[in-house]
Design goal:
The complex is a heterodimer of chains A (400) and B (252). By secondary structure, chain A is mainly alpha-helical. Chain A is built from 17 helices and 6 strands. Chain A has 2 domains: 272 residues, no CATH class; 69 residues, no CATH class. In chain B, helix 3 packs across helix 4 and helix 3 runs parallel beside helix 5. Classes of the chains: A mainly alpha (400), B alpha/beta (252). At the A-B interface, helix 9, helix 10 and helix 11 of A face helix 2 and helix 3 of B.
Chain lengths: 400, 252
C-alpha cells in the first residue's frame, strides 16, 4: 500500500489514527474532574506535539541512520520560523507559501553548514554544528536585528506591506495566519456530557504535515538511500572500499533533516506568527537530541513518542504546584502531608526538569533503545508467556 | 603488459624508507602473491594500490589508467576490490543487506539519490545478491545480523561482497591471518574455487607460506621495501636470496 510493506503501512495507519483522534485521546478526563489538569487536548499543546514530532522525525533521519550527532539543529528551525514570518509580512497571510519558503531556506542553510561540518565526524562534527548554531543565535540576537528583530523577536506589524492581502483588517487589527481563509487559531468545541473536546484548524494542518513527514521518513528508511546511510553508521571503511562516496550521502541526509527542521519552524510560525532568536539556542538543539534518544534513535516511531513525552512533561508536570499537591494529599495526617508534599515538590512544577532528567537517565541506562525498546520488551514478555503456555500444553501430552 | 603495473614506487615515513623503487607487474588472469618478512613494506604497498597512501614518486597503472591521487571509492569503481586482514563488513546490517550494498555501488556508482524507491522492489539487485550468497553457501543466513556471524563466515561474507561487484582485480590482505588450521584450509579452498570459476585476477599479500604456495602462480618477495625476486613458486622455494631474507623467520 502506498509503496510500503505491510508492517510499515500498519504503523502509518496507527499514527494517522492517533493524530486524527488526538483531541479525544488526550482529553480522557471530564472538565470538572480532579484529573482534568492531566488533559493535554488543548490546541496549543497538541500543535506542539506534532510540530516537535516533525522536528524529531527529521533529526532522526540524520542521527538515527548515519549516527552523525548534530548539536545545532535548532538553527534550521529558527531560520524556518524567520522565513515564514517574513513571508507573512511581505507576501500574504496564507500559511502555504510561508511553510514552503521556510523549508527551502532551511534546506539552503543546512546545505552550507552541512558542507563545512561534514568534513569532520564524531565529536568534532557535533562541535562544529554547535558552533554554527550558536553563531546563528548570536547573529540573530544582535547584528542581524533588522532582519530578525533582535531581542524582541520578529513580529507582525500594522504597517507590513503584504502584497497579497491587507496590512490591517477592517477593524484595524493585524490579520492572523490562515489557510485560504481558514484561520489557524479557529477551533470547534464539542461537549459530550462532562467532556469537552477541541478541534483546532492549526493542529490539523500541523498534523497533516507530520503524517506526511512520517510517511516520507518511512520511505527513506526503507529505500536503498536509507540502507546506505545505515551502512555509513556501521562501517565507513568498507563503504569507501565498496566504491561508495559517503560525503554526498551524509550531506543529503543532513539537508533533508534540516528541511524537516525548517518545516517545523514554519509550522510554529504559522500557529503563532512570531519568531525569536531563542529558538536557535543550544538548549533547543539539545532538546531534539533528548527527544530522539528518549523515544529510540533509529526507530521510526521513537522520535515522535519522545517529542510527545517531553512536551507533555514540560506542559503538564510543570503546572502541578504545591497547592495542588496539598489537595492530593489532604487525606494524610497534617504533619505527614507536609512531609510528603515537601518530598514530591522538587520533582513537579518548576522542578519538572528533574523528573525528566531522572527518566532520561533510566532510559539510557536500562533501555538504550529508548521507549520503543521498552515497548518491545513488554511485547516480548507477553509473547514468551504464550510460548510457555504452548510448552506446557505439549509437555502434558504423554511421551512416546 | 599486466593489468596492474607498479613502476619505481618510493615511500618514506620520516627517516624510514618503507618502499624503495618497487616494480611489480600483475598479469591478467593470474594469482600473484607478494610475500616478505615483517616490515618488508607489504601493507604499505597495498595501501598505495588502494589509494590510502600516496607514494613520494613512481606510478601505478591499472587497466591503462593511473590510480595515484584517486580516492579509495574511485579506485574501487575502476575495478579493484579489497579484502581486509580482519573482515570489514557492515556489522549492524543483515547478511543480505551487506551484499546488496556493493550491488547498488556497482550499478549506480559512488552516489545516487534513490530515496523514494523501496529496497523490496529492487528485484534484479536482490537476485544478484541471493546468487552470490548461494555461491558462498550463506543463503540460509541471509537475515542474520552480520555482527553475529562466526569469523569464518565474516570472511566469506566479505569475499562475497567483493565478488558480487565482479572486480577486475581482487586484493587480499593476509586473508588467513589469525585463523585456525581448518579455517585456513577452507579459505584456500574458497579462493581456489573463485579463481577457477570466475577467473578473477588476484593479488595476495601473505605471511603464511603454505597459503602462498598452494595458491600463487607467481610470487614476488619483498624485503626492506625492495623486491628481491619475482618468479614461479617452484623457483622461489629454494632461492638463496629468499632464504637469506627469511633466515630465522620461517622454514622455506
Amino acid at each position: 500500500m502506498l509503496g510500503l510493506e505491510k508492517k510499515d503501512f500498519r504503523l502509518l495507519v496507527i499514527v494517522i489514527g492517533l493524530t486524527v483522534f488526538a483531541p479525544f485521546l488526550l482529553n480522557p478526563f471530564p472538565v470538572q474532574s480532579e484529573m482534568a489538569q492531566f488533559n493535554a487536548g488543548y490546541p496549543d499543546l497538541m500543535q506542539r506535539f506534532v510540530i516537535f514530532g516533525v522536528f524529531a522525525i527529521g533529526f532522526n533521519i540524520l542521527f538515527g541512520l548515519t549516527g552523525y550527532l548534530s548539536f545545532g539543529h535548532a538553527a534550521f528551525l529558527g531560520v524556518g520560523s524567520y522565513a515564514a514570518v517574513w513571508m507573512f509580512k511581505l507576501l500574504s497571510m496564507n500559511v502555504l507559501p510561508a511553510i514552503f519558503l521556510s523549508v527551502i531556506i532551511a534546506g539552503l542553510f543546512s546545505l552550507i553548514i552541512g558542507f563545512i561540518s561534514l568534513r569532520r565526524s564524531g565529536i568534532y562534527f557535533s562541535i562544529l554544528t554547535l558552533a554554527f548554531a550558536q553563531m546563528s543565535f548570536a547573529l540573530a540576537y544582535s547584528v542581524l536585528t533588522p532582519i530578525t528583530g533582535g531581542e524582541t523577536g520578529l513580529q507582525l506589524a500594522l504597517d507590513d506591506p503584504r502584497i497579497f492581502g491587507a496590512s490591517q483588517t477592517a477593524s484595524g487589527n493585524i490579520p492572523v495566519p490562515a489557510l485560504f481563509g481558514l484561520e489557524m487559531r479557529s477551533s470547534v468545541e464539542w461537549a459530550v456530557g462532562p467532556w469537552l473536546f477541541t478541534f483546532n484548524a492549526g493542529y490539523y494542518l500541523a498534523a497533516f504535515f507530520m503524517i506526511l513527514s512520517f510517511y516520507m521518513a518511512i520511505r527513506i528508511f526503507r529505500s536503498p538511500f536509507g540502507m546506505m546511510l545505515r551502512a555509513i553508521k556501521s562501517n565507513q571503511t568498507r563503504m569507501s572500499y565498496t566504491g561508495l562516496n559517503a560525503r554526498p550521502y551524509t550531506l543529503a541526509a543532513f539537508v533533508i533533516s534540516g528541511m524537516y527542521a525548517g518545516l517545523a519552524g514554519g509550522l510554529m510560525a504559522s500557529m503563532d506568527p512570531l519568531a525569536g532568536a531563542e529558538r536557535m539556542q543550544w538548549t533547543a538543539s539539545g532538546e531534539v537530541v533528548l527527544m530522539t534518544i528518549l523515544g529510540g534513535a533509529g526507530t521510526l516511531i521513537g522520535p515522535v513518542l519522545g517529542a510527545g513525552m517531553i512536551k507533555y512533561f514540560e506542559n503538564i508536570f510543570s503546572k502541578i504546584n504545591s497547592t495542588i499537591l496539598h489537595e492530593w494529599f489532604a487525606f494524610l495526617p497534617d504533619g505527614l502531608e507536609d512531609i510528603v508534599v515537601a518530598m514530591i515538590y522538587p520533582f513537579v512544577g518548576k522542578g519538572w526538569h528533574l523528573t525528566l532528567g531522572i527518566m532520561f537517565m533510566l532510559v539510557v541506562i536500562f533501555l538504550p533503545g529508548g521507549l520503543v525498546q521498552g515497548g518491545q520488551k513488554i511485547a516480548g514478555l507477553f509473547s514468551r508467556k504464550k510460548v510457555d503456555d504452548k510448552d506446557k500444553s505439549t509437555a502434558s501430552e504423554p511421551a512416546e | 603488459m599486466g593489468i596492474l603495473e607498479v613502476k619505481g614506487i618510493n615511500k618514506r615515513f620520516g627517516g624510514l624508507q618503507a618502499l624503495g623503487d618497487v616494480n611489480l607487474s600483475v598479469a591478467e588472469n593470474t594469482t600473484h602473491a607478494i610475500i616478505g618478512p615483517n616490515g618488508a613494506g607489504k601493507s604499505t604497498l597495498l595501501n598505495v594500490l588502494v589509494g590510502k597512501l600516496i607514494p613520494d614518486s613512481g606510478s601505478v597503472m591499472f587497466d591503462g589508467q593511473s590510480v595515484l591521487g584517486r580516492k579509495p571509492h574511485e579506485i574501487n569503481q575502476m575495478g579493484i576490490s579489497r579484502v581486509f586482514q580482519t573482515p570489514e563488513i557492515f556489522a549492524d546490517l543483515t547478511v543480505m543487506e551487506n551484499v546488496m550494498i556493493p550491488c547498488f555501488a556497482k550499478r549506480d556508482g559512488a552516489f545516487r539519490m534513490h530515496a523514494i524507491e523501496s529496497i523490496f522492489s529492487e528485484k534484479a539487485i536482490r537476485e544478484q545478491a541471493e546468487t552470490i550468497l548461494a555461491d558462498v553457501n550463506m543463503l540460509e543466513k541471509r537475515d542474520t545480523l552480520a555482527s553475529s556471524l562466526s569469523r569464518g563466515d565474516k570472511r566469506r561474507l566479505e569475499m562475497a561482497m567483493c565478488l558480487v561487484q565482479d572486480p577486475k582485480l581482487l586484493l587480499l590482505d593476509e586473508p588467513t591471518a589469525g585463523m585456525a588450521r581448518a579455517d585456513t584450509q577452507n579459505t584456500i579452498a574458497l579462493l581456489k574455487e573463485i579463481r577457477e570459476k570466475r577467473g578473477i585476477t588476484m593479488a595476495i599479500i601473505e605471511h603464511d607460506m603454505s597459503v602462498v604456495f598452494s595458491l600463487a602462480e607467481r610470487i614476488t618477495v619483498l624485503a626492506q621495501g625492495t623486491p628481491l625476486v619475482e618468479d614461479i613458486p617452484e623457483n622461489i622455494k629454494g632461492h638463496p636470496k629468499v632464504r637469506e631474507a627469511y633466515l630465522g623467520e620461517a622454514q622455506v
